[in-house]
Amino acid sequence: MKKCESEEPSSRALSHIRTDPILVSESPSSSTASGAECDVLIVGGGINGCGIARDLAGRGWRVVLCEKDDLAAHTSSSSTKLIHGGLRYLEYYEFSLVRKALQEREVLLKSAPHIMWPLRFVMPHDPSMRPAWMIRIGLFMYDHLARREVLPGSRTVDLKRHEAGASLKPEFKRGFVYSDGWVDDARLVVLNALDARARGAKVLTRTRCVSAQRNAEGWTAVLEGPEGRRTVRARAVVNAAGPWAEAFLRGVARSAQGEALATRHLRLVKGSHIVVPRVFGHDHAYIFQNPDKRIIFAIPYQDDFTLIGTTDIELQGDDPGAAHISDDEVDYLCTQASRYFRKPITAADVVWTYSGVRPLLDDASGDPSAVTRDYMLESNTAAAPLLSVWGGKITTFRKLAEDAADEVGRMLGETRAAWTDGAFMAGGDLSAWIGVTSRTSRPDDDFERFVDAVRTKFPWLEFNLARRLARAYGARVADVIGDAQSMDDMGEAVAPGLHERELHYLRDEEWACSGDDVLWRRSKLGLHFTQVERDQVSNWMRAHARLKEEAPCS
């Protein structure tokens, strides 16, 4: 990892900057030496915050994480849902970022085969965009920048014969196929939070950090949530607030003298997606080149749909949480997809949209698409340690969390060994179901065998329900089903295929507090339900809200 002590960091490579000299005690202090209630307070319940909480808790530090909304309520549930190296970043010479992301692909795919799996991408060749030789060179680099064990390499295909060609206009005769991965992004965040909690972390949702006062001994933070206000004393703070990271340092965190702690500016870039009824029947995704030199993806989604995105638009306004797709963005995505598909995509086809705000480091680039997706960790030890997370992408979250935990350890004078490389996510270890010796090198094959094992253990489960539960919960599926012996034991079907037993589990174990938490983040069942059915789920969640004294959603 590149470190820069005094110069401005390059926007083209990972930088780790320190605004003050690192203060390390001659002998590591114990977790209780300062009298703090926790070692680290993490602000932000997106993928980076939850990933860091998991890593730190696994190293034995006492962690409290607070999130003002639901887990993954914003950027981390609004991605294109890909575990990918970022083929297009090669054009911007982001070789370090691409290599790092490519290295992480297979680490992640092996860690949670229930929510991640390999995906093949088809790039139809449009000679007016990029010459074939340039694409072949790019794909060669993509295949060889990092070692591959699971994912096959790239190849050229005849679209007149390949199944992916049938959905495309006849002028696209040749294409290229390469590999990346798919992820259920919001569930990835929840899995990290579950693992963090299992290792001792306290995860507080719907809990806003309203003030964080710093002094030489530690931090005193005031958190406001469902139970009212509470004060938490911490030895260090990690600012993982995503699009709100700069605002946290300007308006919430304060030095002992009452000064704001902001040093950098974020560039907030909105990315929007549309979902339409299924455009093609095969299991490949498409990557389309656009005349503006950008790319969009068209991806199989939730069996019955196609996901198309994304845009890159400077955020207008100062509230990242209010971001929504514009009519121009819908038109852009429909127009660009229709350049390739035989059947045009129109705004009338759109059944759902979502928008997220990417918190990118401001490098003065005129083109939002050219702004680096790499991350930076900024340490400040002028008094009690503060670590701020700038930028990042979902594919590199584990490495980011590992680097962050390393740095927190250095700031606290208690370096502890990394552990997440090769570790399973919550529910990701399927060996108890399929056998340790029978696991293959293909996580997606292991998952299919796991589905068979679930159906064998619970033969009374309806097929589609068994598969959906296996996908969502992996090896934790037995915790969801509990002692149920029949479909009647699963409780009332609040909506088709969604039973009370699962809703109780989501409420009690996965911090779900509302219908939206269940329908759009813990699952995507909202896409399959009618408005009446969605309302039924929301009404059930309201009627079964946990009592205040039961620490709701915490």
Task: Describe the protein's architecture and organization.
- Helices cover 28% and strands 23% of the residues.
- It has helices spanning 47-58, 95-111, 132-144, 185-198, 245-251, 327-338, 397-412, 431-434, 443-457, 463-473, 477-481, 500-509, 515-522, 531-543, and strands at residues 3-4, 15-18, 38-43, 63-66, 82-83, 116-124, 155-158, 174-183, 202-204, 208-214, 219-225, 228-239, 253-254, 266-277, 285-289, 295-301, 305-309, 313-314, 352-361, 375-380, 386-391, 493-495, 498-499.
- The strands form 3 sheets. Strands 1, 2, 3, 4, 9, 10, 11, 12, 13, 20 and 21 form an 11-stranded mixed β-sheet that branches.
- Strand 10 and strand 11 form a beta hairpin.
- The longest helix is centred in the N-terminal third of the chain and has 17 residues, at 95-111.
- The two termini are 35 Å apart.
The percentage of residues in β strands lies in: 15-25%
Poorly predicted runs of 5 or more residues: 1-34, 548-554
Structural class: alpha/beta
The best one-word shape is globular
Mean pLDDT: 90
**Termini, distance in Å?**
35 Å
Largest sheet entry = 11 strands, mixed
- What is the strand tally? 23
Helix content: 25-40%
CA-based gyration radius:
23 Å
Give the helix tally.
14
Structural topology:
Blueprint lengths: L2 E2 L10 E4 L19 E6 L3 H12 L4 E4 L15 E2 L11 H17 L4 E9 L7 H13 L10 E4 L15 E10 L1 H14 L3 E3 L3 E7 L4 E7 L2 E12 L5 H7 L1 E2 L11 E12 L7 E5 L5 E7 L3 E5 L3 E2 L12 H12 L13 E10 L13 E6 L5 E6 L5 H16 L18 H4 L8 H15 L5 H11 L3 H5 L11 E3 L2 E2 H10 L5 H8 L8 H13 L11
Parallel strand pairs: 1-2, 2-20, 3-4, 3-12, 4-9, 6-15, 10-13, 12-21
Antiparallel strand pairs: 5-8, 6-8, 7-8, 10-11, 11-12, 14-17, 14-18, 14-19, 15-16, 16-17, 20-21, 22-23
Helix pairs in contact: 1-4, 1-7, 9-10, 13-14
